[in-house]
Amino acid sequence: MASDNVSKTMKIISTVSLGHLAGITAFKSSCIQPALEEQEDVPAAAKTMSCILKRSSVLPIISIVSSASSLYVYYKSYGTKSEDEFYLISSLMIGGLVPYTAWMLLPINQHFLSEGETFEHSDEKWKFLMKDWKKWHLPRSVVCASLFSMAVYKLVF
Which PANTHER family would you find in this protein's record (predicted)? Predict the structure, then answer.
């Protein structure tokens, strides 16, 4: 019985952390990024983007927590009638977001986080970076939102 409680708790932790990731990535993709693109004051928008990225440093930790808790749920149910491959898939996909982010988004983020980079006379560079950032950030949003939706379904039903 104690093992069932631990598994249920880990399912909840996995779902909540997926929800956190889904919410943050969806908000960045659908609200913040378009608003910053429309900003006429590029240096102010660049400063805002830099602040947002600095505050996002906790996301890899949340991804690892979600991945580990999903993997635990799968491991504990492996070989039983309650085995559910969703938790293995979720663990691998969320765990894969960390290297994906490091490979695809970190180089772009470094431009936004560069000391002294204000994009004061580089509107085109700003627009290119924002377009590129959106292109690589959107798949993260879709993956997180999809996995969160399925995790809620699995938790409830």
Answer: DUF1772 DOMAIN-CONTAINING PROTEIN, YALI0E30327P
Sole residue written with tokens 């180089």? 107
Range of the domain at 74: 1-156
Tokens found for residue 130: 């924002």
Judge whether 105 and 133 are in contact, CB under 8 Å: yes
Chain position carrying tokens 């102010």: 44
SS3 83: coil
For residue 152, the SS3 value is helix
Q: Which of 153, 155, 149, 135 is nearest to 21 (CA)?
A: 149
pLDDT < 50 positions in the chain: none
pLDDT of residue 88: 98
What per-residue confidence (pLDDT) applies to 1? 53
